[in-house]
Amino acid sequence: MPAIVLVGAQWGDEGKGKATDLLGSRVDYVVKFNGGNNAGHTIVINGEKFALHLLPSGILSENCVPVIGNGVVIDLEVLFGEIDALQARGRSTEKLVVSADAHIIAPYNTVIDKVTERFAGSRRIGTTGRGIGPTYADKMNRIGIRVQDLFDEVTLRDKVTSVLNLKNQVLAKIYNRRALEVDAVVEFLLSYADRLRPMVANTALLLHEALEDGKTVLLEAGQATMLDVDHGNYPFVTSSSATAGGACTGSGIPPTRIARVIAVVKAYATRVGEGPFPTELLDSKGDELRNAGAEFGTTTGRPRRTGWYDAPVARYAARINGVTDFVLTKLDILTGLPEIPVCVAYDIDGVRHDDMPMTQAEFHKAVPIYQTFPGWEEDISKARTLADLPANCQAYVRALEEMSGARISVIGVGPGRDQSIVLNDLLA
Ligand code: GDP
Ligand code: IMO
Ligand code: MG
Fold first, then answer.
1. Atom of ligand 2 nearest to the CA of 130
2. Rounded distance, CA 241 to CA 221, Å?
3. Ligand 1 closest atom vs CA 42
4. Co-location of 112 and 226 in the same domain
5. Tens digits of per-residue pLDDT, 81-140?
6. Final residue belonging to a domain, choices 197, 215, 243
7. In the chain, how many domains are there?
8. Please, what's the largest Cα pairwise distance for the chain?
C-alpha cells in the first residue's frame, strides 16, 4: 500500500489522532500536511494520555518516521515545548523530520489573530488564536517566513523588516497595540535555528524516495472537511486545505500515489467555534452528549457544540475526499440513549435537500429531517467484533453506512488504542 490519506469528515475532533495511532505501528511514515497547533489530538495508550498539537500522531509509534510537511504552519515555541514534554515522558522524538518549505507562525501573527477576532466582535470566527489564519494569509501574500529562512540571517532580517513595516502600522494604528521590534523578532526566531537544523529536510524528496522503496506513507489531516478553506462552511473555516486534495499540495506526494482515503467520522457531531451546525442540540440533550463524550477542546478547553449525526455532511465528505473507508468513532458514547435521531436530509425553505446546498446562506437555514433509531443499553466498550454489539447498535452502524457513501471499516468503542472493532483492514 503506497500512500494513504486520513481526514476528518465533520468539523474536527472526530478522533483522527487515535485512528492514526492505530495504524502507526504498521506504516513507515506519518505526515502532517496542513494546519498547525490549532489541532488537538488525544491519544490513549495503555491508559496513558497524550495530547498532541503540532507533532504528527505517528510520533508515538516507535518505528515510524513522523514528518511535518510543507503545508503545515509551525509555532517554534510550541514545537519544542511538545518535543521536550514527550522526551520528559521517555518518548523518543529523534526521528522527526521537518520540511524546509513549511511556514513559521511569527509572533506578530499570533497577536494579529487574537486582535482581529476581538475587533470582529459578533462576526468573529471563533479561531483558536494560534496565528493560523494570518500565517496562511502571509504565505498566499508571498510575505511568509519559512523554516529555511532561519538558516540565512541576512534574508530573514530582510523579510522580517519588510513585513513589520506593514504589520506594525496595522497593529499600532488599527488595533492600538504596541509595534514589534525587528531585532526582537529575528532573535526570537534565530534562537531555535540550531536546534531545528538537524531535523530539517527536503521532505517531498524524502517521501518520494520512501515510496519508490515500497514504504507506506500515511498522510494525516488536521481539522476536517467542513473546516476546509475551500470546501467547508466558509468563512467559518480554518485557513488550510484539510481535505484529501490538501494532502498532495501539503506534502509534495502526487495524487497518482494515493491508494486509499480514510475519513474519521464521529457517531454524532461536534463543532468548536462559530458557524452553522444544523443538527446542533441547544438543550439539555446537548449538555448530556457533551458530558458523556467529554467534548471539551484539546487545544483551547472550550466546550464543543454537540448535535446528532448529519448524513448529508458525511456524504459530502465522502464525495469531496473520495473516501474509501470510514472509521466510525465514539459509538460507545451513545449507549443508554432510548432513541437516536440521525439527520438524513435538510429542509431549506420547504424544499428537501439530500445534499449540501449550493450556498452558505441556504446552509444557514437548513433544518434537519430526522430518522430516529432505537438505542441500546448494553456497555459496548469491550466489544471487539461486530457480533459483540447489541442488535440495535449494529442496526445503527449499518444505517449510517448505507446513508454515508462509503463502507465503515473500523468502529471505535472507547479512547484506548485497543478499543476498536476492525471490519476491514485499512492497510490491506
Ligand atoms: P482529533 O482532533 O480528530 O484527533 O480528535 P480529538 O483527540 O480532539 O478528540 C477525540 C476525543 O475522543 C479524544 O479525547 C479521544 O481520546 C476520544 N476518542 C477517540 N475515539 C474514541 C472512541 O471510539 N470512543 C471514545 N469514548 N472516545 C474516543
Ligand atoms: P483538530 O485537528 C476543531 C476551528 C476553530 C475555529 C476555526 C478556525 O483537533 O480536529 P483557526 O484557529 O484554525 O483559524 O480556527 O476552526 N478549528 C478546529 N475545530 N478541531 C480542530 O482541529 C480545529 N482547528 C481549528 O475552532 O472555529
Ligand atoms: Mg482535536
1. 12
2. 9
3. 7
4. no
5. 999 999 999 999 999 999 999 999 999 999 999 999 999 999 999 999 999 999 999 999
6. 197
7. 2
8. 67
